[in-house]
Design brief:
Elements (H helix, E strand, L loop, with lengths): L1 H26 L4 H27 L4 H27 L2 H8 L2 H13 L5 H16 L2 E4 L2 E4 L2 H25 L4 H20 L4 H9 L2 H28 L2 H8 L2 H12 L13 H22 L1
Antiparallel strand pairs: 1-2
Helix pairs in contact: 1-10, 1-12, 2-3, 2-8, 2-9, 3-7, 3-8, 4-6, 4-12, 5-7, 5-11, 6-13, 10-11, 12-13
């Protein structure tokens, strides 16, 4: 169960990253594209460094895995691009669980194309995680009951589906090449994809304006360079070691950690994220989290 511990650690880190990203998008970056572009540049550097170390040591005999890893990164970049746009429109504690439904897509694809098999309990565990994530999108408001805006929901679900596809493509790459070659190729593809999808004429002025703020620089360094890099590395290792349908499901538990952090940062004493925390909202979010936790327990039984 090494993949479980590694994947859970990755999800914990990603939970922190999502909260930091939301703060930066709301307060420090004038556009989503400027934020995505800088994140892409960081991933390009990480990918090039990984390949500069791996290729001389391991060679390129397994170049197919590297190439497939690269394209999994490009698809992942497109999925993350949709997620970041959805994050700009919604609360992070709602957007992250919806994006976390990607195990549904990854599991179906893994069963069909990779020949993976799920036990009845594991199917129920994946379903609990997905239902819990969907429940988090429900927003009780005075006078009516409804879900988040259709536009935000559509954007987040497209991002989720693309990420599910990326999980499966990346798993295929791990069967063809070593961990470091796939990791380097995936990071390079992720960076190139994010930078390309985010490019705008006004981009560099927006990036310069955002990073001229010392607080934005500290948040970006801690969130995207330190925490995100560690989370991505652990996730790639979990994908290499475990079945992709279950690794992707475990990764969606980042919403649990996002909820815990937002509860702590949205109190009347320390309201950093400014998310609504009335009784109905908290109860609903706790119910969705309980389903997610139950699903995680089911994965290891």
């Amino acid at each position: 169960m090494d993949w479980f511990i590694i994947g859970l650690a990755s999800a914990m880190l990603f939970g922190g990253v999502m909260v930091v990203d939301k703060r930066m998008l709301d307060r420090h970056f004038p556009s989503v594209s400027s934020f995505i572009f800088v994140a892409g540049v960081v991933q390009i550097v990480i990918g090039l460094v990984a390949l500069a170390v791996a290729v001389p040591l391991l060679g390129l005999a397994d170049v197919d895995g590297l190439v497939i890893g690269f394209w999994s990164g490009v698809v992942w970049a497109l999925g993350l691009t949709f997620f970041f746009y959805g994050l700009r429109l919604e609360e992070v504690s709602r957007a992250t669980p919806i994006y976390g439904t990607n195990p549904l897509f990854a599991s179906l694809l893994a069963v069909v194309f990779l020949g993976e098999r799920l036990s009845g309990l594991q199917v129920g565990a994946v379903a609990a995680i997905v239902i819990g994530a969907g429940l988090a999108s429900y927003r009780p408001t005075p006078g009516r009951r409804g879900f988040i805006s259709p536009r935000a929901l559509a954007i987040l679900l497209v991002g989720s589906a693309l990420t599910g596809i990326a999980f499966v493509v990346n798993k295929e790459a791990t069967t063809l090449s070593s961990f470091w070659l796939v990791f380097g190729g995936r990071s390079l593809g992720l960076g190139v994809g994010m930078a390309a999808f985010a490019y705008r004429r006004s981009l560099f002025a927006n990036v310069a304006a955002a990073l001229s703020n010392p607080t934005a620089r500290r948040l970006y360094f801690g969130g995207e360079i330190v925490m995100a890099s560690a989370a991505v590395t652990l996730l790639q290792l979990a994908i290499t070691l475990g079945p992709i349908s279950l690794v992707s499901a475990l990764n969606s538990t980042r919403s649990l950690f996002v909820l815990a952090i937002t509860l702590g940062l949205s109190t009347r004493f320390w309201n950093v994220l400014d998310e609504p925390m009335d009784r109905n909202t908290v109860t609903l979010k706790l119910a969705s989290t309980a389903l997610i936790v139950a699903g995680v327990i089911g994965l290891v039984l």
